[in-house]
Design brief:
This protein has helices at about 15-25, 50-60, 90-95, 120-150, 155-175, 190-195, 220-230, 240-245, 250-260, 270-280, 305-310, 315, 325-330, 335-340; strands at about 5-10, 40-45, 65, 70-75, 100-105, 205-210, 235-240, 280-290, 290-300, 320-325, 345-350, 360-365. The longest helix has about 30 residues, at about 120-150. α1 (about 15-25) packs parallel to α8 and α4 (about 120-150) packs antiparallel against α5. The two termini are about 25 Å apart. The protein contains 14 helices and 12 strands. The protein has about 375 residues and is of the alpha/beta class.
Length: about 375
């Protein structure tokens, strides 16, 4: 699996420019006025992973298939969105459907782009959007809690379990705190997920800076980074303008030379993906053969049968065993045969927890 990340923020902070760069398309209209994005645009992008190229070369694979990441460009929120201002209700509904939120904050001054609030202040902008999301969650949760209270009076066990989760979440939201501040037990976690609250989703702050600040950031992005650290969120500095320029360069060497001229080692996309994977606890395993070398994304802690099921449900249903080679061993031994000859390939059963970088071959029978 990959993950579905919704790009949110106030109008004119660089969301659509970043989305276009990430997906190397012009699907989202990056115009200098609010609400230029009327419907959420969805873009699937390959997750860059240098290990896959190495594995493909060793395996003499004909094709390389990276795992995919899905970005959803959601139009800008404004004050009052939770009450239907702008196109608020429509956009809030779209945000509920994503796995994580990439909150783009404007961290540059100047230029001809009008800021909807009249000045640049990323912490204020963050508070505006976060408040609207919390108000939307509060409204949704209060309605469902009222229904659950009525059912619980009739000794409905499911309703009582739901209320045990809803009540502390309501208390947090009424205090002006996001739902992610609630730490559920293992039993409560599925119930929290079912509620589809926006503010329980993990969040990544994307600081959109000017080209000159792309390498080291600036005072604005430093404040955002401190805020993100305090709340346990992710934070990445990118320049949407640079990403847009990189996206149109087709030659890899030319792209790398351009990045190095700006003091950058990698694109903002790579940093966003890496931060997103960390945020959701995702890892990658590989399958390698003469036809293709392919990356597969799973949640950290996934066991072998469920990892096999990502390829095909039959693999999970008829799982017998997994032949596993650690990435470093695969490379050091010059490929699969070398790993076999040196005893680095091992057979694992149903309880094996897949590790990041494992090269795997599944044995199954249906």
């Amino acid at each position: 699996m990959g993950f579905r990340c919704g790009i949110v923020g106030l109008p004119n902070v660089g969301k659509s420019t970043l989305f276009n760069a990430l997906t190397a398309t012009a699907a989202a209209a990056a115009a200098n006025y609010p609400f230029c994005t009327i419907e959420p645009n969805v873009g699937r992008v390959p997750v860059p992973d240098a290990r896959l190229d190495v594995l493909a070369k060793l395996g003499k694979s004909q094709r390389i298939l990276p795992t995919q990441l899905e970005f959803v460009d959601i139009a800008g929120l404004v004050r009052g969105a939770s009450k239907g201002e702008g196109l608020g209700n429509q956009f809030l509904a779209h945000i509920r459907e994503v796995d994580a939120i990439a909150h783009v904050l404007r961290c540059f001054t100047g230029g001809d782009v009008t800021h909807v609030e009249g000045s640049v202040d990323p912490l204020r902008d963050r508070d505006i959007v976060e408040t609207e999301l919390m108000l939307a969650d509060l409204d949704s949760l209060e309605r469902r809690a009222n229904a659950a209270v009525k059912k619980s009076r009739g000794n409905d066990a499911e309703a009582k379990a739901q209320l045990a989760v809803m009540e502390p979440l309501l208390a947090l939201l009424r205090e002006g705190k996001p739902g992610r501040a609630f730490v559920p037990t293992a039993e409560q976690a599925p119930l929290v997920k079912q509620l589809q609250l926006i503010t329980t989703k993990p969040i990544l702050y994307v600081c959109n800076v000017a080209e000159a600040d792309a390498a080291a950031g600036n005072a604005f992005s430093a404040k955002v980074a401190a805020m993100a650290k305090a709340e346990g969120a992710g934070c990445v500095v990118v320049s949407a303008a640079i990403e847009a320029e990189v996206a149109i360069l087709e030659d890899a060497a030319e792209r790398q030379a351009f990045l190095e001229s700006l003091g950058l080692e990698e694109t903002g996309l790579t940093r966003v993906i890496r931060a997103g994977h960390d945020l959701l606890g995702l890892i990658t395993y590989f399958t390698v053969g003469p036809k293709e070398a392919r990356a597969w994304t799973i949640v950290r802690g996934t066991k072998a049968p469920q990892a096999a099921g990502v390829i095909h449900t039959d693999f999970e249903r008829g799982f017998i065993a997994a032949e596993v080679i650690a990435y470093d061993d695969f490379v050091a031994c010059g490929g699969e045969q070398g790993a076999k000859d040196t005893g680095k390939m091992r057979q694992e059963g149903r309880d094996y927890v897949v590790k990041d970088g494992d090269v795997m071959l599944f044995r199954f029978n249906v």
